[in-house]
Amino acid sequence: MSTFSAFLLTREEGQEQQLTWTEVDEADLMDGDVTVAVSHTTINYKDALALTGSSPVVRRWPMIPGIDFAGTVVASEHDGVAVGDEVVLNGWGVGETHWGGYAQLARVPGEWLVPLPSAFSPAQAMAIGTAGYTAMLCVLALERQGVTPSDSPVLVTGAAGGVGSIAVALLAKAGFEVIASTGRPEEAEYLRRLGAGEIIDRAELSGPARPLAKERWGAAVDCVGSHTLANALAGTRYGGTVAACGLAQGMDLPSSVAPFILRGVTLAGVDSVMAPREVRLEAWDRLATDLDPDLLATVTSTRPLADAPAIAGELLAGSVRGRVVFTVDR
After folding, report:
1. Is residue 289 in some structural domain?
2. Best exposed site among 66, 122, 184, 246 by fewest CB in 10 Å?
3. Is 105 in contact with 136 (CB distance < 8 Å)?
């Protein structure tokens, strides 16, 4: 094809950004040695920020948003990536500085791509997406610090969201007792089906934190940041670990050194965007063995890509449960 359809974000100086569904010339695709026919994509918190302009996620204009995609290779000059291969992409600045997955075609460097695990269809890979891949990175971070099920319970904040939902499912399947924190009490049964043993209201964690609180959990996965992360640290038992991967409440950390120097707590930062290829492969291999496909279906809804702008607002409002997969029509 000489043109393809895509969502395109544009911005004139001094004006608000504009989002249009339009035809793009294939010759305008950005540099890369692999071209992929995108079949599925998804929406993450960062995608919602980009689509709505709520935060300066996009750093190059014009931009095709979408930090994740799955599809089939249609052209390749990269060793080890062949035409016909099914592949997955997460992060690498796609949708921020490099044209992303909200399009029928994407062109990227081949080293950014991960082979689609045989355990998953492209749709399932996007049900996982950056959210599920990040959740697995958090679990791996806890394991590297020696956290085992004997250190239960593990707190998961933002538990009804994309990262949180899959983190709950992964931890529960691994034998951990999970405390799920959410601001949506109506999702309690959903979280229990994923494996949460206890549900707490996010209000318990969202206010200003004391330097130290009662030791309530041996580890935590925090998707929220700000006061919530501070409270997660304050309530972590001696020698525990908190894996931090999100900023839904804010980028600040109004805490103190007390959890670190009085309880030996470790704060493990988790980055999904620029993680090395070997870490990505490890995470996807583990997802293929550790994530229950039936539970994955429980956390997922499927919509056409045209619905992305509307869903972005819902996600930022905290009203989207789990994961949304977008189909990309040809």
Report:
1. no
2. 184
3. no
What is the residue range of 16's domain? 3-116+299-327
Other CB atoms within 10 A of residue 209 CB: 24
Phi, psi for residue 226 in degrees, rounded to 5: 50, -140
Residues 9, 108: one domain? yes
Distance (Å, rounded) from C-alpha 21 to C-alpha 259?
Answer: 49
Is residue 139 a contact partner of residue 158, using CB atoms and an 8 Å limit? Answer: no
Q: What is the pLDDT of residues 287-299, one digit of tens each?
A: 999 999 888 998 8
| Whether residue 180 has pLDDT greater than 60 | yes
Q: Between 133 and 13, where is the model more confident? A: 133
Domain count, the chain: 2
Q: Provide long-range contacts, Cβ within 8 A and 24+ apart, for 140-147.
A: 140/279, 140/282, 140/283, 140/286, 141/241, 141/243, 141/268, 141/270, 142/219, 142/221, 142/241, 142/243, 142/268, 144/268, 145/219, 145/241, 145/266, 145/268, 147/218, 147/219, 147/240, 147/241
Instruction: Determine the pLDDT at residue 259.
Output: 98
Confidence of residue 330 (pLDDT cuts 50, 70, 90): confident
pLDDT tens per residue, range 181-222: 999 999 999 999 999 999 999 999 999 999 999 999 999 999
Residues 6+ apart with CB under 8 A from 294: none
Q: Note the pTM of the prediction, 2 decimals.
A: 0.94
Separation CA 73–CA 79 (nearest Å): 13
Predicted pLDDT at 1: 55
CATH code of 112's domain: 3.90.180.10
**Contact in structure between 42 and 126 (CB atoms under 8 Å):** yes
Kindly state whether residue 318 falls inside one of the protein's structural domains: yes
